[in-house]
C-alpha cells in the first residue's frame, strides 16, 4: 500500500512539473512575441523619425532668397527676422560700405520700439523715411489730409523732406521762435540739458557760465547720406511728420558690411524688426476684425464700441437705410 501511495505521489509530482513547464514555456513564448512586437514597433517608429528628419533636412536647405534674407541677421547677431521685399532690381553693394542699425519708437508709447532697420551708409535719409510705418500716415490719408513733409533732427541740424512741391519746411516756425523769443528758447534749452532741479539751483546760486543755444542749421533730407552725418551711437534723435507726430530715432549700431550680408543695395533699408499691430476684434461677434468704431451709440454695449462691417450693418441699417443717426461713426485703423 505504501509503495502504491508513493508511486501515485511521484506521478502527481511529475504531472504537476510537466504542467508547470508547459505553462512556463507558453508564457515565455508569449513574452517573446510581445518583445518581438515591441522591437518591430520601435524599428518602425525609428524609420518614421528618420524619414521626418530627412524631410526636415530637405526643407531646412534654404533657397538663395532665404539665404540672402538671413545673412545680415547673422552678422548683426540679432534674434529678429530679416524682412525684405522681393526686389527685382539688383544693384551690387560697393565696398567698403557701412551698415547702420536704426531703431524707430512709437509716437505715444515712447518706450515701445516699432521698427528696426539695416541701412547702408551711402543711402539718403529719405530712403529711410519712406520705409518708416506710422498709423498717423494712414489716418491722414483716409482723411484726405496727408502731408508729405517731415524732418529728422540729428544733433543740431534739421534735415527737411522737401521733395514734394507741396511740402512745408517744418523747421521754419522753430527758427522764427528762436529769433523772436531767444530768452524763452534759452530757458527751454537749459531745462532740457540740465533738468529742472539744476535750473532752480542755478537761479538761487547764480550761474557763472550761462548755456548757449546750439547753432541750428537746415539741410535737405534727400541730399544727405548717412555717411555724411555727425551722430552718437545710442543717442535719441527726433523724427517728425504729419504736422506734430514725433518719434524717437536711435542709431544703435554701426559696422562694416560683411560678405554674408545682403549684397543687393536695392534691398536696403532692410526691416529686421516690425512691431505686430494690436488687432481689435468686433465687440458683437468677437470673431472678425473691427473696421468701424462708434461713439455715443445708444444700442452699443460699450462706448466707444468696435464693429465689423457685417455686425455694424445688422445693427444700424435696414434695407440699406440707417435706423438711427444719434451717434458718431469712424473708420477704425489698427495700431
UniProtKB/TrEMBL annotation:
Its main location: nucleus. InterPro entries: snRNA-activating_su3. Pfam families: SNAPC3 (PF12251). One of its GO terms (cellular component) is nucleus. It comes from the Eukaryota. It is found in: Nucleus. The keyword S-adenosyl-L-methionine does not apply. GO terms for molecular function: DNA binding. Keywords: DNA-binding, Nucleus, Transcription, Transcription regulation. The keyword Heme does not apply. Belongs to the SNAPC3/SRD2 family. This is snRNA activating complex family protein, putative isoform 4. It comes from Theobroma cacao (Cacao).
